[in-house]
């Protein structure tokens, strides 16, 4: 391994997306894989009408952990971020694997709390952590893999949206953005807002029931979770489906509006660009299936909110109340990594 | 995350095996999982006579990389260690996923070489790297997951060996041990020995063809790869199967014998306790299938060596030439980690 610090040639000069392109360019393609490059999970038909879906994601201590996160919530988050991803593909979790890298001076009791947090989140999502590996590393590493099963015809990809489809989400946006402002920039918030914002950050939930309900009725043409932030997630759907969106509104948590007023911030910007690590589903729904979709999500205890529609132009625009159109850019946090830039 | 350095309560005081037990004690068990606790892969029946096998393993820069390893051989090793494990279960690789954590100052060209090395190793084993993730971390992290398919009745576990079975391996032991002595303790070796030893370390190969050939004829009652070292691997089989072994000989690479003479070392100790990170299969074979097993491995270009037999006593003993019995202890390197203890 080179220890030369030639930054002009180092990976630090590339964003995560460019790094993905770079690595992929050296990998031969498996033509059986159904989701394609640019999706963040893989899907392979395994016969008997079944599709195996897999997603892997690493939570790294130095870059992915927010101040005040307990070991238990770290464990939870590592599970939720993996489950959410296969849920967004319409896959029911089959099992989870975790490789853990633990620093030598990490407290035994904290490792136990991580394991308990992981287990609780797995059980909440109807699955188990069945295997993995553990070893020493300088940094806390929770490398998770979620395996899931989708039925043929029910796989939901980032691609597939059609002009005229409705754009919907399973919840409002922006609470994690508030959490980040409070935790990382020390912005103050009334205690009820702070409580909600920190819960969004410390206790994320995957929209598994909603995803499976939508998959079952084959209502979805394209799907993603909002873990990259609202703007980036919409751009992924746009790019992969070759379409655009007109948003009729940015669905904001009420706390986001209040917090924005308090600090003279733009609430839409908070939800679009400064959040992420939240796990709402963003889905494109066939218009003829809209009522069924709303019903299906309601039956499992969720809500499906209409937030816009699919357009032919590849732009993503927000129609403001005064009738203007604002273009939504492909910007957002790449997870937590920018905050920690040295 | 606690930054307290209370070593009396830190994970550094526990070995990897104890850490695994600790973590597992906090995880609910999935009764569908077929390999059981103590195996290092998981297997779940998915219908249609198929069993999904999965294994995950992290290669960490600070602990798993040997001096002189090129980025390409790091990539290769990360793939081989994952493929070897599911091969040892009798599973054909379905696909590979990798989450990469890359330090900011890592050279772009080296990342490209890692990707190429990973791809080459995947293709050698008839599979592809179809997905994954990439992000920044202080340490190089290659978190791999291998997914494979076994047919019902052909799954090979660590448990299942029966008294009277023959113990066999797909190759001799000890070359990586020489590699470690040369690279980490600066022991000298004639150039032909050095070349072989370093090749074993830098260019490991998984015994996939051999494993699948043995699985197909249902000759194997218990199986493991020798990645934990010969002694520890035998103890895993013994513990999980509730049996012991009598070894008729320690199958040594000729280079190991010569190197041991040169440095006045015990060649058996080198092979048993000081190696590891080599990927031979160690299998228990039904006596009535022995000839078929030898033939099947031969047909795919390999060799199956008889090295002992399964006994009722749970001890693992080596019968020396002068008729004495030496007990083989449950010792070995836990990967590379001990060398790097600060």
Please give the number of β-strands of chain A: 12
Number of helices of chain A: 11
How far from one another are the termini of chain A?
21 Å
Strand order of the largest sheet of chain A: 7-9-6-10-8-11-12
Main sheet: strands, sense, barrel of chain A: 7 strands, mixed
H-E order of chain A: HEEHHEHEEEHHHEHEHHEHEEE
Chain-averaged pLDDT of chain A = 92
- Helix/strand-derived category of chain A reads alpha+beta
The parts of chain A where pLDDT drops under 50 for at least 5 residues are 1-7, 335-342
Oligomerization state of this entry?
A: homodimer
The rounded Rg of chain A comes to 20 Å
Helix % of chain A is 25-40%
Strand content of chain A: 15-25%
Largest interface: pair, residues per side: A-B, 94 and 94 residues
Shape of chain A: globular
Describe this protein's structure.
The structure is a homodimer of 342-residue chains. With 342 residues, chain A is of the alpha+beta class. Chain A is built from 11 helices and 12 strands. Chain A has helices spanning 16-24, 61-64, 71-87, 108-124, 175-184, 191-202, 208-216, 230-241, 254-263, 267-273, 290-299; strands at 42-47, 50-60, 92-102, 129-136, 141-151, 166-169, 220-225, 244-247, 281-285, 305-311, 316-319, 325-327. In chain A, the strands form 2 sheets. A 7-stranded mixed β-sheet of chain A has the order 7-9-6-10-8-11-12, with helices on both faces. Chain A has a 5-stranded mixed β-sheet with strand order 1-2-5-3-4. In chain A, helix 4 links the parallel strand 3 (92-102) and strand 4 (129-136). In chain A, helix 3 packs parallel to helix 4 and helix 5 (175-184) packs across helix 6 (191-202). The radius of gyration of chain A is 20 Å and the shape is globular. The model of chain A is unreliable at 1-7 and 335-342 (pLDDT under 50). The interface between A and B is large, with 94 and 94 residues.
């Amino acid at each position: 391994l080179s220890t030369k610090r030639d930054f002009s040639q180092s990976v630090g000069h590339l964003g995560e997306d460019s790094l993905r392109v770079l690595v992929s360019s050296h990998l031969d393609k498996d033509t059986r894989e159904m989701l394609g490059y640019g999706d963040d999970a893989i899907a392979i038909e395994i016969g008997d009408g079944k599709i195996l879906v897999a997603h892997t994601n690493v939570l790294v201590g130095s870059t992915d952990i927010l101040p005040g996160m307990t070991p238990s919530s770290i464990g939870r988050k590592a599970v939720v971020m993996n489950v959410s991803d296969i849920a967004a593909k319409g896959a029911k979790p089959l099992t989870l694997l975790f490789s853990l890298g633990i620093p030598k001076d990490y407290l035994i009791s904290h490792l136990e709390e991580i394991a308990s947090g992981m287990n609780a989140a797995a059980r909440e999502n109807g699955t188990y952590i069945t295997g993995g590996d553990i070893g020493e590393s300088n940094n806390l590493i929770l490398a998770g893999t979620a395996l899931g099963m989708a039925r043929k015809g029910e796989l939901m990809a980032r691609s597939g949206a059609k002009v005229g489809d409705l754009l919907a989400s399973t919840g409002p946006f922006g609470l994690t953005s508030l959490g980040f402002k409070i935790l990382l920039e020390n912005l103050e918030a009334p205690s009820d807002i702070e409580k909600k914002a920190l819960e969004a950050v410390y206790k994320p939930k995957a929209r598994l029931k909603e995803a499976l309900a939508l998959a079952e009725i084959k209502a979805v043409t394209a799907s993603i979770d909002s873990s990259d932030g609202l703007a980036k997630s919409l751009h992924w759907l746009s790019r992969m489906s070759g379409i655009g969106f007109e948003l009729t509104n940015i669905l904001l948590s009420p706390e986001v509006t209040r917090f924005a007023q308090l600090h003279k911030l733009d609430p839409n910007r908070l939800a679009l660009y400064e959040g992420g690590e939240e796990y709402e589903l963003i889905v494109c729904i066939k218009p003829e299936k809209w009522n069924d979709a709303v019903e299906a999500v309601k039956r499992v205890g969720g809500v499906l909110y209409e937030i816009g529609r699919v357009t032919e132009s590849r732009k993503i625009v927000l129609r403001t109340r005064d009738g203007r159109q604002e273009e939504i850019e492909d910007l957002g946090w790449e997870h937590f990594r920018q905050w920690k830039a040295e």
